[in-house]
Amino acid sequence: MKILITGGAGFIGSYIVEYFKDKAAVIVLDNFRSGFKHNLEDFRCEFMQGSILDRELVRRAMRGVDYVFHLAALVSVAESMQKPFECAETNTIGTLVVLEESGPRESEEAGLEQFCRHLWLQRCNAQSGNDAA
Question: 35 Cβ partners below 8 Å, 6+ apart?
């Protein structure tokens, strides 16, 4: 099994990397905007530095991937107030790029088995008794 974690160097993403240690080949795509390289130091994973807005990079990251955990986002409320267009572009267009590139190619028989977004957050919320996801 091979998984891609966008935003994998962030707090939650690094826990997903840890969870899949010795269970799957892991690729992390992150631009270090809010994540940190030291979050990945204890784990073997392929790292790709860049933005989810870079369609070609996302396409390369998707090669051979079975599952995607999409966590990459501009998450700072203060920054989103200062840069609303950049926030909207990253969080909406970036997500569309990830979704489009996770689908099957004309040259492939099938795309990803499953697109896993917000799965980890839902699990954490369920365990904490918080129904909001």
Answer: 7, 8, 9, 10, 11, 13, 14
